[in-house]
Amino acid sequence: MASSELASVKVSARPQTDRSFYLNALNLPASAPFPIITRDHWGPMPEKKPSKPQVAENPIADVFENRQPSAAEKQWAEKTLAPTLEKSPERPIGAPTGVNLDEHGDARFTTISGVPIRRLYTQADLPEDWSEEKYLGYPGAPPFTRGIHATGYRGKLYTMRQFSGFASPEETNQRYKYLLEHGGGGLSVAFDLPTLMGYDSDHAASEGEVGKCGVAIDSLEDMEILFGGIDLEKTTVSMTINSPASVLWAMYLVVAEKQGADWNKISGTIQNDILKEYIAQKEYIYPPAPSMRLVIDTFEFGSKFTPRFNTISISGYHIREAGSTALQELAFTLYDGIEYVEWARRRGLDVDDFGPRLSFFFNAHNDFFEEIAKYRAARKIWGQVMQERFGAKNQRTWLMRFHTQTAGVSLPAQQPMTNIARVALQALAAVLGGTQSLHCDSYDEALALPTEEAARIALRTQQIIAYESGVTQTVDPLGGSYFLEALTLQMEKGALDYFSKLDAMGGMVKGIERGYPQKEIAEASYQYQRAAEAKEKVVVGVNEFVIEEESPHILYIDESVARQQSAKLKTLRARRSNDEVRRTLDALKKAAAQEPEVGTNGNISPANTMPYIVDAVRAYATVGEICEALREVYGTYTEVSIT
Q1: Could you give the residue ranges of the DSSP H alpha helices within 416-481?
Q2: Is the dihedral of CA 63, 67, 72, 73 positive or negative?
Q3: pLDDT for 181 beyond 70
Q4: What is the DSSP letter of 140?
Q5: What is the DSSP string of 542-560?
Q6: Confidence of residue 643 (pLDDT cuts 50, 70, 90)
Q7: What are the two backbone dihedrals, phi and then psi, of residue 600, each rounded to the nearest 5 degrees?
Q8: Which residue has the higher pLDDT, 37 or 119?
Q9: How far is Cα 342 from Cα 503, in angstroms, rounded to an integer?
Q10: C-alpha 480: how far from its chain's center?
Q11: N or C terminus: fewer CB in 10 A for the chain?
């Protein structure tokens, strides 16, 4: 059928099946082959050619496909859209190949995750029973699509954090004071690789890495220096540490104790998310089961002794940085949360005791609306899971609290100043999505740790959004957008589909052992890289709009930090009571080897490792010594092949 004939097509408003409706609209016989364009595919679209001849693709076919458009929308499609497309066919953004073409060779538009996007969204793209009361609700009330606080940011702005840590504790302490003096609302600690892997700075495995990607912390002495002059009862602190999380958290608690702070009043978050390490970041030490045991120990300890401190930040950030789609980040992160709750309940813990202290950590990538939809779907799903799957009674347990960080993986080394614009858009998406806490990456992220200037610009970006843009003055300002609501529902459906697959495998630990989430992410990462190399996805300054440029000034960390840390360790080991260190480490190993059971009479399990780790920290045992004691009990983990 020629496109010039479309304007005269008379479309019946009578309800019909999708197939008959479409065929009638185009005056085709019932036996005609039916061209199907899948619109609910998540992830990069496969490049396939039709296996049998099909009718020529109609330029307004998608208006009728799997939808019941209103009479007005049909008329617009026939009288306005069709003639426009005849004169000026749509052209993809990027190379007209691969992901940018549908099976008929026409332009296809997709999110950064490869999800097809319609040219126009209307009521016809929402469920027939869609209503504000059922699907949206109100802020601070189920289903929490519009946010967990009734007043949004009008009562309290999001916490402005800067992820920071470099070189020595002394230097990082000065950077923290600088950030707080310039308006930062909280601190977020970046540790160096040896600390993340549970090694001291003088260990052979630490060579060349001390202080390079974060601050080097070897002992309680270093933690005391790191937070010297900073009131921990008044400053919220987030610490990005996973396998040795119990150890670093114990050090933090002892420093707060030495400052005279009340453990009941200190607030912050320890990342402590070991599952995403096996899935994405790979900074694990012990096998999954004992690692999960250590995490649950912190849940139990925290619910008893630190009621305002979040004992986990279930992290999708690193899953996305590894190359996942937005949907995979959402689904795997939430299912990690489900797995932690399942393990805690097996211990005998009440979900309403530890549930209010579960927090989440998401990525803010470049695709503006996809990211906002992800956050909205996350809140809705988590509230449902806590009520329906786990029977939580406390409304605070239903609430998803999350921190957001802009996407480091999206920030190229080429033309780094353009990253200021990327970070601003990503941060705006996080705020419009309702984040409780935000960190903006510095524009020189791909080159080195941030300079002081770059860190200040990142903080100012948050402040401009908060104080100048106006987006914090009303709650969920994009709520009710046909496009955003349709994306949110697609995200929700896709995540629940992943849940079903993981449930069938026996949970996330079983899925990790099979390599399932790792394979899914690897495939998504490959497909995006292929699209970028083919210029189907445009990356400004990298594969388009390229210039010759000089290398910018960066922060360089030399080997003097390693020498300084090693000298401190030598002095510490000579000064402390090594007999006391051995005693506390032996007690820790004994507790770690026991099977923990739920505590009685309001006490925690006698085998909970946290009190023993705190004792070892007070004796100035080092990170490496404590982790080595646990290695002796649990062994170490080697990843399964996913090929």
Answers
A1: 419-432, 452-467
A2: negative
A3: yes
A4: T
A5: TTBS----PPPP-----TH
A6: low
A7: -120, 160
A8: 119
A9: 12
A10: 24
A11: C
Q: 179: closest CA among 440, 374, 443, 508?
A: 440
pLDDT tens, position by position, 345-394 = 999 999 999 999 999 999 999 999 999 999 999 999 999 999 999 999 99
Q: At how many degrees (to 10) do helices 610-618 and 288-305 cross?
A: 80
Contacts of 67 (CB under 8 A, 6+ apart): 18, 124, 125
User: What are 48's two structure tokens?
Assistant: 């396939």
Distance CA 366, CA 248 (A): 33
Q: Above 60 in pLDDT, residue 17?
A: no
- Chain centre to alpha carbon of residue 353: 24
The burial of 504, by beta-carbon neighbours within 10 Å (0-12 exposed, 13-18 middle, 19 or more buried), is given as exposed
Confidence of residue 565 (pLDDT cuts 50, 70, 90): very high
What does pLDDT average to over the chain?
A: 89
For residues 140 and 446, give the distance between their C-alpha atoms in angstroms, rounded to a whole number. 38
Are the CB atoms for 571 and 201 separated by under 8 Å?
Answer: no
Q: Which H or E run contains 239?
A: strand 236-240
Report CA-CA distances (Å) from 526 to 44, 100, 113, 282, 621.
10, 16, 12, 18, 43
Residue 193's φ and ψ, nearest 5 degrees, are -65, -45
- In the chain, pLDDT over 90 holds for what percent of residues? 80
Question: Do the beta carbons of residue 561 and residue 167 sit within 8 Å?
Answer: yes
Token pair of 576 as six digits: 């402390």
Indicate the DSSP class of residue 385. Answer: I
Asked if pLDDT for residue 642 goes beyond 90, the answer is no
Q: Residues 470-491: pLDDT tens digits? A: 999 999 999 999 999 999 999 9
pLDDT of residue 587: 98
- 479: Cβ–Cβ under 8 A, 6 or more apart, which residues? 136, 145, 146, 485
| Amino acid found at 114 | G
What global pTM score does this model have? 0.87
Residues 217/249, Cβ–Cβ less than 8 Å: no
State whether residue 468 is helix, strand or coil.
coil
CB 406 within 8 A of CB 430: yes
- pLDDT in the model for residue 56: 41
Strand ranges in 44-170 using DSSP code E only, listed in sequence order: 159-164
Rg (CA), the chain: 27
Peptide bond into 53 cis (omega under 30): no
SS3 assignment, position 116: strand
**pLDDT tens digit sequence for 260-315:** 999 999 999 999 999 999 999 999 999 999 999 999 999 999 999 999 999 999 99
Query: At CA 175, angle to CA 174 and CA 176, rounded to 5?
Result: 90
Q: At what angle do helices 482-505 and 516-533 cross, to 10 degrees?
A: 140
Place of tokens 């002394």: 170
Q: What is the mean pLDDT of residues 572-598?
A: 96
Count how many Cα atoms sit within 13 Å of the Cα of residue 545 in the half-sphere of its side chain: 8
Residue 295 tokens read as 């995490």
Is the pLDDT at 37 greater than 60, yes or no? no
What SS3 string covers 593-612? CCCCCCCCCCCCCCCCCHHH
Question: Is residue 398 very low, low, confident or very high in pLDDT (cuts 50, 70, 90)?
Answer: very high
